[in-house]
Amino acid sequence: MGLTYDDIQKLLVTKKEEVIQQGNGELCKVQKLVDEFFQMKVPHGAEILDVASGSGILSCMLQNKGYYNIDALDEDIDVINDLKQLDMYRNYVHRGVKGLRSTGLEAQVYDVVITAGGFAQDAINPLDISELLRILRTEGHLLWTMRAAEDEHSTEFGLLHANLRSLERAGRIAIMKHEQFYDSAGQHGGEFYLIKRLPGQLPYFAESGVSGELKNQITNILRDNTEPENRIRFYDEWSDKYEEDLVLVGNYSGHTKCAEAFMSLNLNRSVNILDLACGTGLLGGEIIRNGYVNIDGLDASMQMLGQAKKKGIFKEYIYAALNGLGSLPLADDLYDIVLCSNGFAPGQFYPEAVEEILRILKPGGYLIFTIRDGLEEASPRFATFDNHLRDLEKTEKCEVTLGPIKFENFVLDHPGIFYMIRKNAHVHRAYEDTQP
Q: Is the Cβ–Cβ distance between 337 and 272 less than 8 Å?
C-alpha cells in the first residue's frame, strides 16, 4: 500500500458516502466494528484480514490510525479489482468463505480477522466460521458486526450462538463480547461479536481440512449392500462425535432446512411431531427451541438416541427401524408432522418408506424431509423417487406441496433436495388454529 495521509482522508470521505448510500444502517455497523477494534489496543504491526471487504472502508479507517498490514478477501472479482486500483490493501485474495480451506490461506496467519456485515444470508454462512478460526493465530481475535440473527430469518443464524458456545465449552474459543447495538437515532443496528482463539488445537478438521477418512465414512456407509447391523454399528460408534463431524466438518445443513420449512407452517405449539432418524437430536433441538414440546425421536441406533436423551429433547425415545409398510411400532394417524433429515439414503430409507410414514401421519399431516442430491448414483432405487411420489399423488394418498427444491451445502460439497408432502384428507384441526 502506498497511500499518503491525504489519500486516506479523501478516500474516507468517498467511502463513507458509498456506505451511506447502501442504506440499512451499514455505516453504523462499520463504525461499531472500528470502535471495538480500537478499544482492543491491537499492536500496529498486527496482521489483519478484512473479510468480505466490499467498499474497503474498514481499511481506510484502520489505516487512518496507523494500521497497514491489512489484506482483503472478497469473492467478487470486480470488488477486488476496484480495491487494487485504489491501492487500499497490502494483499488481495479473490476467494469466498464456503467451507474449510475454501479461502486457500494457510492456517494461523492472522492476528485479527474482521468483517462488517460479512455474515449474511446472501454472503457468508455462519456455519463456515470454522474456516475463519482456522486462519486465526492462537490468542488472535475474530470480530464482526451483522444484522440481528432473527432478522436473517434463517436457522443457520439462529444456531450461530449455540455453535459458538459449543466451541467455548470445548475450550477452543472464548466469547469476549456479544451485544446488540443501534445507531444514534435508534433506527438501525445489529449484533456485535468478539471472540478469541484459545491456546491448543482446534478440532482436527480445522487444521487439516476434511479428512479422506471422514469423507469415506459419510459417503461409503450409505450403500445398497450395507448390512443393517454394520450400518447401525457405524452410527453407534460415531454417536459421540456425530455433531462435531457432521455440522462443523461436513458443513451439514439438512436439519436447518427442515426446521425452516416447519416453522413457515406456523402451526400451533400443541401439534404432535416425530423426528424420524433423529440421531443425536440436531433437528429436534431446533424445533423445541421454537416452543414446540410434543416431539418424539425415532432412530435405529441406540447410542444416537442416548446422545439425544442427554439433552432432554424428546418426550419419547423410540428405538426402531423403518423398512416397509407396518414396520414401525406406531399406531395409525398418530402424528401431525413427521420431520426427517438425511434419513432417506441407500442402506437406510428408500422411496417406498413414504407409505409407512403416511400411515402414521394424521389426515392432513405433513412429511418434511431433506436428502442428499445425486443418490441415484449410489442406488438406482432413488432414480425413481419423484415417480414414486407422483404415483402416490395419483392414488390420492398424498400431495407434494413443495419439491423437489435443490439447495447447496447439504453435507460436505454435496447439494441437497427438499420436499414437503401432505397426507390427503380434510384439513386437520391442528392446521385451523395457527396461534402459538
A: yes
- Amino acid occupying residue 31: Q
Residue 334, C-alpha cell as written in the block: 398418530
Strands lying side by side in the sheet with 295-299: 317-319, 295-299, 273-276, 335-341, 361-372, 414-423, 398-411
Query: Which one-letter amino acid corresponds to residue 369?
Result: F
* Residue numbers of the chain with a pLDDT score lower than 70: 1-2, 100, 152-159, 166, 170, 200-253, 409, 411-413, 426-436
Q: What is the pLDDT of residues 100-138, one digit of tens each?
A: 678 888 888 999 999 998 888 778 887 778 889 889 999
Give which of 71, 60, 124 is closest to 93, Cα–Cα. 71
Provide the grid cell at 395.
392414488
Structure letter (DSSP) for residue 74: -
How does pLDDT run across 229-266, given as a tens digit for each residue? 655 565 555 555 555 555 544 456 678 788 888 988 88
- pTM, 2 dp: 0.53
Q: How far is CA 393 from CA 42, 341, 389, 401, 417, in A?
A: 63, 22, 6, 10, 19
Proportion of the chain in helix, strand, coil states, percent, rounded to 5: 40, 25, 35
Other Cβ atoms within 10 Å of 210 Cβ, number: 18
Burial tier of 309 (Cβ tally within 10 Å: 0-12, 13-18, 19+): middle
Q: Residues with Cβ < 8 Å from 393, sequence gap 6 or more?
A: 399, 400
| Peptide bond preceding 363 in cis form (omega within 30 of 0) | no
What CA–CA distance (Å, rounded) separates 424 from 362?
9
Q: State the Cα–Cα distance between residues 397 and 61, nearest whole angstrom.
A: 62
End-to-end Cα separation, the chain, in angstroms: 56
Q: Is 407 exposed, middle or buried (0-12, 13-18, 19+ CB in 10 A)?
A: middle
Q: Which residues contact 427 (CB under 8 A, 6 or more apart)?
A: 364
The torsion angles phi and psi of 236, rounded to 5 degrees, stand at -60, -45
Q: What's the angle, vertex CA 120, arms to CA 64 and CA 40, rounded to 5?
A: 35
Contact criterion met (CB below 8 Å) for 159 and 168: no
* Separation of alpha carbons 279 and 41, rounded Å: 45
Classified as helix, coil or strand, 356 is: helix
**Alpha-carbon gap, residue 418 to 371, rounded angstroms:** 7
